[in-house]
Amino acid sequence: MRVAMIGTGYVGLVSGACFADFGHVVTCIDKDAEKIARLEAGEMPIFEPGLEKLVAANVREGRLFFTTEAATAVREADAVFIAVGTPSRRGDGYADLTYVYSAAEEIAGLIDGFTVVVTKSTVPVGTGDEVEAIIRRGRPDADFAVVSNPEFLREGAAISDFKRPDRVVVGTEEERAQEVMRELYRPLFLNETPILFTSRRTSELIKYAANAFLAVKITFINEIADLCEAVGADVQQVSRGIGLDNRIGSKFLHAGPGYGGSCFPKDTVALVRTAQDAGAPVRLVETTVEVNDARKKAMAAKVAKALGGELKGKTVGVLGLTFKPNTDDMREAPSLDIIPALQAGGATVQAFDPEGHEARQLLRDVDFKAGPYEAAEGADVLVILTEWDQFRALDLDRIKLLMRQPLVVDLRNIYRPDDMKRRGFRYVSVGRA
Asked: How far apart are CA 405 and CA 414, in angstroms?
């Protein structure tokens, strides 16, 4: 089948490359000429393990193309995907649908023959109705169907998630559109991947509900971690004890500095706004948003407490800046709250992240180092903010010699307290004695 993918951001590029790898002919479209030129040269605009190799292979095989001109690709496409950004709107937290509606207007003037227009972007309930109305106004005679097909890709594991998903959700009750979507995802039938067909509005809500539930789960275990510290319990054992219950499950029960990234922060706020407008407020999600925002800010106080309550004149080494490992995504990363708070208290910050290049534009007055040992050198405390694999097996004897004092604040619990004590460190973690 022929696919046009409008948007070459995280979702569009990964989805386009994976569809091409399924055997479809995919054209990825973006108005950013510089980005398209980089993609044609084999340069990835994002860091995602395996993506560069996947893109190169499908370009070489003649299944994946990049362009700034949408006309031919959309006109020839069986399915046109809208995979543009839907950031939080400034001031009120609603999803900004400007790019989605702009794409719909462009599509209206280009489609030819029956075309399935697929909203891949994360959008509030009812967005598909408006996309359909925009296209219908622009082309009253057009033969098309608007479908919701939300993505469930984890940054750092997106290719695996696309090719071996837990489920595929498709929102449409139009039989011709269902057939097109079945054909697009036919390679997944071998793995017996569940494909759930729903109404369009139900599909849109599934995406928000899934992200909100996971955000609630993360925030729940973070609050339990605070309770563990207060009563002398171990949050990791609590997590294991409750996670072994099949009704609960073990995933997303890792205590830390709060969730960040491109999805959970904006999607939870957007769901809150949608629910308020509908007169059916989601109080649990509202509280989750508030608690998570407060938690990220509170982590700086945890570091200060480890230093005896005084940050002024101290040097803080930071390991990890991105919101999670195996990505270069800095959106809503805890580091963006924690580091400025440390600096406001008078600390000097020196930091390292393997892929956090964007941090140089987002964080001021940080001494960016070339590696973890350089970040530890001369530090009064070493703070682990992101659990990159290379931070899990540091030469602790070397770290100890480099630091002014052997103090580690591990906000990801990647080391064992007993091991750190035996190595001569004062070790502070989350939800553990």
From this structure: 20
Q: What's the rounded Cα separation, in Å, for the pair 363 and 6?
A: 31
Token code pair at residue 60: 């070489």
Does the reported pTM lie above 0.90? yes
Nearest to 3 by CA among 106, 97, 110, 116: 116
User: 18, 28, 228, 263: which is the annotated catalytic residue?
Assistant: 263
Which of 165, 262, 263 shows the shortest CA–CA distance to 211?
263
CB hemisphere CA count around 357 (13 angstroms): 6
For each of the domains in the chain, give its residue range(s) and CATH number, in order of start: 2-198 (3.40.50.720), 212-428 (3.40.50.720)
**Catalytic residue check, 263:** yes
41-62 b/e with 16+ CB inside 10 Å = b?
A: eeebbbbbeebeebbeebbeee
Residues 179-203: tens digit of each pLDDT: 999 999 999 988 899 999 999 999 9
